[in-house]
Design brief:
This protein is of the alpha/beta class. The protein has 2 domains: 5-205 and 306-333, TIM Barrel, CATH 3.20.20; 216-303, no CATH class. Helix content is 37%, strand content 16%. The protein has helices at 5-10, 27-35, 52-62, 78-91, 103-111, 123-132, 154-165, 179-187, 197-200, 209-217, 244-251, 312-333, and strands spanning 16-18, 40-43, 67-71, 95-99, 115-120, 136-140, 146-147, 170-173, 192-195, 223-226, 238-241, 266-269, 275-277, 289-290. Strands 1-9-8-6-5-4-3-2 form an 8-stranded parallel sheet. A 3-stranded antiparallel sheet has the order 7-11-10, with no helix packed on it. The protein has a 3-stranded antiparallel sheet with strand order 13-12-14, with no helix packed on it. Helix 2 runs parallel beside helix 3 (52-62) and helix 6 runs parallel beside helix 7 (154-165). The chain starts with a helix and ends with a helix.
Length: 334
Amino acid sequence: MIRTPLCDLFGIELPIMNAPMGLSASLELAAAVSNSGGLGLIAMAPRLPADIPTVLNQMRALTPRPFGINFVPPLDPPERLHEKLRVCLEWGVKIVTFWGNPDEYVEQAHQAGALVTYTVGSVSEARDAAAAGADMIVAQGWEAGGHVRGTITTLALVPAVVDAVSPTPVVAAGGIADGRGVAAALALGASGVWIGTRFLASTEAFTHPWFKQRVLEANAEDTVYSTLFDGGFPDAPHRSLRNSTMEMWEQAGRPPSGQRPLEGQIIAHRSDGTPIPRYRSLHPIASMQGEIEAMALYAGQGVGLVKDIKPAAMIVEQLKCEAEQVFEKWKLST
């Protein structure tokens, strides 16, 4: 059993979390992770305050086990984020994660009895987070898919953050897509893992079917670190799969925002008909229609290890068993 102190902190059985990948991290996905003994996470950035109680009630109907929520401070004005957080805390949420500096929200969460998690990309960020009262820190390596905090690899970042903030527990993120990665992260001193790309290809993920298939076909060399898909989220570096939009931009000499080819062109639509322009920061979910291939296809460098689509519960079990096999092999060989 790969139990760590993080399990006691959160009241879970396995130190495995799904990354809150926008709406791709469906309630069904997060609930499946929680029901499997891990910690399911759902994104609150895409949701309005009025919708949150319904979302949380639906989540509780899917799992009686602990789960968490995630906010992205750069995407919500402070007043709206405070309101969203207030609604979540009044409902009873006890685990709140943030991508971006959440210092002004920590006291609000702690006063309600909730645990607060920061995602960081450097040792200095980690030290600041610990000083601000973080109950757990996610050390996100440069290999990660989606939006990326820093430029340091997971292998180098995790042990440095562990040393800098001990005894605050640290969770490793970035490039972890199988049980070997889980074992490696724990060997580096992490108390758990935060996994995104592998769960994109889960049955429950609300990822667009075409995107899921693309994930299965991709490898690490297909991912690119850039700030290309910045519509609605400016100056936010991210890692995504190479596609026609990126190739067109590169052929044009990588011009800055405002000078890129076909900028503003509508390439897809949401289910309610809302248009999605080229270079928007959105990734394709199942309800979208249009040129899905031209949208932001967020994926980390661990994508080459993702070979099939299966239920999240099976993914969690496979991660656990593979990690245990690594530790057992190491034990027998030393």
